[in-house]
Amino acid sequence: MATVYIDGNRHDADAKQNMLHVSLSLGYDLPFFCWHPAMGSIGACRQCAVKQFKDEKDTKGRLVMACLTPALEDTRISIADQEAQEFRAAIIEGLMLHHPHDCPVCDEGGECHLQDMTYLTGHAYRRYRFQKRTYRNQFLGPFVNHEMNRCIQCYRCVRFYRGYAGEHDLNSFSIHHTVYFGRHEDGILESEFSGNLAEVCPTGVFTDRTLGQHYTRKWDQTYAPSICHSCGVGCNISPGQRDGIVRRILNRYNHEVNGYFICDRGRFSYEYVNSPERIRAPLVRRGDEREVIEKDEAVKIFAEMLGSGEDVIGIGSPRASLEANFALRALVGADRFFSGFSTGEQRLIELMLSIMQTVHVPSLREVEACDAVLILGEDVTNVAARMALALRQSARREPQKKALAARVPLWDDLGVRQVTGDAIGPVFIAFPCATRLDDVAEATYRGRPDQIAQFGYAVAAAIHSGAPPANTDASAQALVKRIAEALRTAERPLVVSGATLRNEAIIGAAANIVYALEREGRSAGLAFTMPEANTCGLGLMRARALEEALESRVQYGTVVILENDLYRRATAAIVDEFLARAGNVVVLDQVNTRTAARANLVLPVASFAESAGTLVNFESRAQRFFPVLPPSDVQESWRWITDVATRRGEFGSWNSLDDVTAAVEQEMPIFRGITAAAPPSSYRIAGEKIPRQPHRYSGRTATLVNISIHEPPPPDDPDSPLAYSMEGYTYKAPASALPFLWAPGWNSARALLKFQEEINGPLRGGPVGIRLIRGDRRGAPEFFSGAPEPVNAPERRWLAVPIYHLFGSDELTHWAPAISSLAPQPYVAVNERAGFRDGAPVAFQSDGATQTAVIKIRSEIPDGVAAVPAGLRETETLRLPAWISIEAI
Amino acid sequence: MPSQPSEHEVRVLSRRFGLPNSASIDTYLANDGYRALEKALKEMTPDSILEELKVSNLRGRGGAGFPTGMKWSFVPRQSPKPKYIVCNADESEPGTCKDRLLMEYDPHQLIEGILIAGIVVGSHQGYIYVRGEYRYLIDILDRALEEAYARGYLGKNILGSGFDFDLYTHTGAGAYECGEESALLESLEGKRGIPRIRPPFPAVAGLYASPTVLNNVETFSSVPPIIVNGGKWYAELGTPRNGGTRLFVLSGHVKRPGVYELPMGTPLRKLIYDVGGGIIGDKKLKAVIPGGSSTPVLTADAIDTPLDFDSVAKAGSMLGSGAVIVMHEDTCIVRAALRIMQFYAHESCGWCIPCREGTNWLKKTLTRFHSGGGREEDIGLIEDLAKNMLGRTFCPLGDAAAMPTIAFVQKFRNEFEMHLAGQPCPFEKHGQLVGA
Amino acid sequence: MTRATGFLPMPSILHDIADTALTLAAGFKVTLKNLFRPTVTEDYPSEPPRFEQRFRGLHILQRDESGLEKCVACFLCAAACPSNCIYIEAAENTSENRISAGERYAAVYNIDYNRCIFCGYCVEACPTDAITHGHGFELATYNVTELIYRKEQLLASPASPAQF
């Protein structure tokens, strides 16, 4: 702590910070461009100039950049100083020389940091009497639009793209007043975080291309606090809609989870909500035809199909909310509720969840602070992209210690990078193929899943002699020792693993490494990736495994399938047989999946944008999401189930989400506390619900005039404390129910700093999410034993392992055009020693079914392994890993 | 060819310039070559060399004039990382062309100076970063390096002392900004030539985040004579706090422009009238830029200023790189300001806003001003824009552009006013004036 | 009754006639004066009405010299509207289908004249001078839904670039 003086006011400040950070944290309005809270200071824009005084007698002072001035004891600055104000206005004047002033046609207009800063400095009069410079724009792919003329050269884009996200195909070119930010040639941006450029850019150079296709101003959108449904990280998002069309997704800051950034799958996933493939009305199969029916009739038919309930089973879904799964479980009974995980997956998830009880599972904020990482058998970028971005920051922790030793503060981004150079910390990756994090890995290990498990056991044994030993090949011995040493000597070691390779031993090995570190007195973290939005929540329900139902040979009367395409969970032959066996198939889903096409009754289910519920993320954080689209016949699964149960006279007291959430909490002790994840629907600020619309929302009386000139009352929302209205207050809203950010004078995404307790700290207004597993059973858990025997590959056979693709493997984003355009075509990746030509068409056999694909040669893949992309659209699901034969065709 | 020697010169660095084949190692060896290296390796310790340098009062010849001995002593003796010696041969300041001669006519003197720096700080690797436009010098330097390797002055176990040193040449792409030491290091690492932040200083975290000694060609070239003849001898050549001689580059409206080695503290009058033979056409002196285009202009009143770092600073300017540009009475000062600003607008690296936008705006304003399109308020604008760069930019390039501009406006405001009211430049009838 | 002095005493009948004439003249003073002034009464609806230049009537969406719509769908008019009666949907121009000179054009542009207060803020806000006040004012209708004016009704005809 240090005492600093700003404009004569005395403040306590964090001495490890700079004066810009301190001033903004204290609520002063000081303009800035190149500084970013997650990326520190570089002193390029000179916008945050303030007058600094040596002591209280100094009246002359000198201009300094607040972002480069450490908040040391007795630092005295003046923001209001005349000379400083004039200089700051002169900087804006400089930026405005070439800025096109095309705000009316710019997508950033109305939420532009440059607009805000221009107003803040008071610059208005133009003295420049020459022509503006112009640039050529580039095509950067389906996500990001490029309009270089608006650029003010703050260097934030390249700092995020290269320095923070670690990708290289965006750079700054040329010198003097023609500096250019773009790719070396037109082309799709390679980073999976490119969408963040739209929020990082202080003006409209990089904008959301998908928003541009159905453009609406920030003030005209209706927002809701939501949780991303695209993977198990649980990033907080803020979708915006108008006229029933979701227009875009913005990052919603949660300092424990996603912070300032989300991945492109999360940001652009919303497009499927608007897809014509969505199921909008109930469908009933009559003969070969499917007929659209009324909602009430659908409920009636559903009730009839349930009959006495004796031979009814329910299949849950890891992409549906806790409430939806719980409602189905309540409808069919706990013993007839099956999870809906893929074959073999449930066992792994339950294993991971039981291990999580015995270790510390870090949040992403803690992941970023780890200084030694072992990623064991997981391709984090493609399964949990946001976690990969956090791990990229972990790789900088160890080198940063050198900077601190050289007395360079961590906010001094240039200084830190000068001291650290390109050095990376101890990050190690063991995976069969190259991953997108390999560039920050000190070393990588390639092997078959069983070899990776052996490798993990060996690391554990090298850390602590009590851990069961393993036979790993001699060539890996040195690496095992190096990793063990790095983890043992680190301040905050971390192990990351997951279920991608479907290998129980890998998960046991990851646990053993952490247990070994704990026995050595080290405090280690263990993070498991979770592939789907609610994998963790559904796993905690301890439902029966889907395989039991699929392979039971029992004649079920009615099968109720909740938001799940069974054809993605098991092989087609098994699912075909299962569905043919069932008397009635009721599918509740959002899009017309292959399973839905086989159903007798299909009920249209609300997407994340239309529904409320609770999800549990990879660290067991329960977080609530709320609808952004007003209610319609497309309703939440739990509401359909409640409707049918009410009709049948069962659990009739559920009227809103709060009732269902309370029932989950009451029925299943593991979910204790989830009601507190967000305020209840009865929450009010000064008697008002929290508005979903900004106070500038326009056209309110004219929006629906083509239907009726009578302005309808705003739709009722019984499930949330939010209103579909402009009336009410957001400024004091609880963090978990904050639909959008807007503060006086701060119209851009940077309004966030007015909602944070301090820069980079938590939001004002309470916790965001509730941790369910707290690692209570830590202590001295038993080591997992039995490193698996190495497998010898049969002649001309390959072990097919599933490889996830951020763009392509996720089910719902198949219907999001921008994302699906980047999905790969089916392929089989092997090394060149397999004797195939790159691009050669082949057929491969698995589970008796033959599939076709093309060969992709990836030389890093070990002998005897074939990597097969998982979950691509219109490809058959394989039971992986499996030994396959590959034939040229 | 080097300029005709003048009897006023004290030739220390340039004493081999006129010799036949002066760039060859044989000529060098025949004229005291590598004697300093031998002495440094066999008779001296790093500490005693440093002591000699401190006694010599040698100050960096790149422009800032920082004492060289002190700079070298900042490099930590113990370092887990390799240490580097980098020679800044990115001589790009308009008016300056002295390093070019040092490399063209006496490359071995430079190599020897770098080697001695290596001995002092315990470095085994060095780079000569040569300006892109000096591409032809690369051949000369590479030949010299080859010769030095062949004779055992570079490479492993130099002169049997056990000291190893490797030296490489590297060309820039012709950016003035890369003459700024930290931008030079970025460029040398293969990155964009933009300046770094300080601290950390290159002595702690320089090239590849390792301790680095970075000096100008002339500074390194001054080291061998100091080692051979002693620091005291060198110091006495100059004035008390400004040791030795330096190469002055005399250009502009003088009868005998050229590069002259003179003791520090030589009066400006002597340089122009005695060494340079007076002003072309015996016209009246109007203005002198004393240290390269980035230094504030001096009026004719300052003719008796001694040319050393402190005296020039007292006169309101800087000695800089020692490039003296003389302007006679027919020179259009607006045109001179414009020519200088054209250079800085082109060479601004684009990192910070005041310099990036300010230089370009100034260039455009001065262009129009000079051609008669100026307005009364433009004079204030020019001064205002320059002041917003002075001391407020990320690196000294902003200062370099601002200082001469402010001085031109303040000292020659009447000439700016003469351009107003839509009149063409009053000096234009005299044809081509300053610069080109 | 007071009598004007300076008149010669006359027989009462003459006196009465003069008195009446004087009274009439005084009474018709304004009428008579205006009899010789130019006429200001308009014969609306028999004749078209005349307007001051800055009369704020029904809006017109203007076109530019080349006939393209000036509106670039920036939403500023809708944001400025105090009665929230302007509703816009934007769509992107393509090289095949170019409607406006900007990146986007207004695919839907509705003004609800039930609510419009003719304040002119929309016109003030418009950065491209696309929306202007015309001189139309005959809004009366038997059906309030007809007071929702669509873009087709608001748009200037392609033939004449600027209308008022």
The SSE order of chain C reads HHEHEEHEEH
Q: Structural class, from helix and strand content of chain A?
A: alpha/beta
Helical amount of chain A: 25-40%
CATH structural fold name of one domain in chain C: Alpha-Beta Plaits
Q: Tell me, briefly, the overall form of chain C.
A: rod-shaped
Mean of pLDDT of chain C: 88
Largest sheet of chain A: 7 strands, mixed
Reported by name, the CATH topology of one domain in chain A is Dimethylsulfoxide Reductase, domain 2
CATH architectural type of one domain in chain A: 3-Layer(aba) Sandwich
Give the strand order, joined by hyphens, for the main sheet of chain A.
15-14-25-24-23-16-17
Side by side, the strands of the main sheet of chain C go: 2-3-5
Largest interface: A-B, 41 and 35 residues
The count of β-strands of chain A is 36
Q: Strand fraction band of chain A?
A: 15-25%
Percent in strands of chain C: 5-15%
Radius of gyration of chain A: 28 Å
Q: Uncertain regions of chain A: pLDDT < 50 for 5+ in a row?
A: none
What is the number of helical segments of chain A per DSSP (H or I, 4+ residues)?
A: 25
Q: How many E strands of chain C?
A: 5
Percent helix of chain C, as a range, is: 10-25%
What features would you describe in this structure?
The complex is a heterotrimer of chains A (889), B (436) and C (164). Among the domains of chain A are: 95 residues, Ubiquitin-like (UB roll), CATH 3.10.20.740; 153 residues, Phosphorylase Kinase, domain 1 (2-Layer Sandwich), CATH 3.30.200; 163 residues, Dimethylsulfoxide Reductase, domain 2, CATH 3.40.228; 91 residues, Barwin-like endoglucanases, CATH 2.40.40. Chain A has 889 residues and is of the alpha/beta class. In chain A, a hairpin with an 8-residue loop joins β3 and β4. Chain A has 25 helices and 36 strands. A seven-stranded mixed sheet of chain A has the order 15-14-25-24-23-16-17. A six-stranded mixed sheet of chain A has the order 32-34-33-36-31-35, with no helix packed on it. In chain A, strands 2-1-5-3-4 form a five-stranded mixed sheet, sandwiched between helices. With 436 residues, chain B is of the alpha/beta class. Chain B folds into three domains: 213 residues, NADH-ubiquinone oxidoreductase 51kDa subunit (Rossmann fold); 84 residues, Ubiquitin-like (UB roll) (Roll), CATH 3.10.20; 98 residues, de novo design (two linked rop proteins) (Up-down Bundle). Chain B is 42% helix and 14% strand. Chain B has 17 helices and twelve strands. In chain B, a hairpin with a 4-residue loop joins β3 and β4. The two termini of chain B are 21 Å apart. Chain C is built from five helices and five strands; from the N terminus they run ααβαββαββα. In chain C, α1 packs across α2. The N and C termini of chain C lie far apart (58 Å). The radius of gyration of chain C is 28 Å and the shape is rod-shaped. In chain C, the strands form two sheets. Chain C has a three-stranded antiparallel sheet with strand order 2-3-5. The longest helix of chain C is centred in the N-terminal third of the chain and has 16 residues. The model of chain C has no long low-confidence stretch (mean pLDDT 88). Chain C has a domain of 96 residues: Alpha-Beta Plaits (2-Layer Sandwich), CATH 3.30.70. The chains are: A alpha/beta (889), B alpha/beta (436), C alpha+beta (164). Chains A and B meet through α2 and α15 of A and α13, α14 and α15 of B.
